[in-house]
Amino acid sequence: METLNEHEHSPVILLAAITSRKTDRIYPFEALIEPPEGGLSQRSNVLLIELRALDKKRVVGRLGSVSPPVMNRVDAALRIATGLVRI
Q1: Any bridge partners for residue 54, and if so which?
Q2: Which residues pair with 13 in a beta bridge?
Q3: Which site among 44, 55, 64, 66 is 20 to 30 Å from 74 CA-CA?
């Protein structure tokens, strides 16, 4: 998993929205995270079609992290969401 320092040449980082409301159906461009993974208290869904650029100066800390298997699911969903892989 990348850290903020690995993006030292860019003034922004990309963030994906996470919701606990839409977890009944997971699309290929989304990734499910089960608690307590990432410090979450509820079953949550990473919405990789809702990426946001955020200035690194606005990042004040880290709320949690996920295991490599979960990050692999997020990476796979991101590849689908960006069109790098077709399903």
Answers
A1: 13
A2: 54
A3: 55
CATH number for the segment(s) 4-81? 2.30.30.110
pLDDT digit string, tens, across residues 21-72: 989 999 999 999 999 999 999 999 999 999 999 998 998 888 889 999 999 9
pTM for the model stands at 0.80
65, two tokens:
């992290």
Domain boundaries, the chain: 4-81
Distance of CA 72 to the CA centre of its chain: 10
In 1-74, where do the E strands start and end?
Answer: 12-19, 30-33, 44-55
Q: Evaluate whether 18 touches 51 at the Cβ level (below 8 Å).
A: no
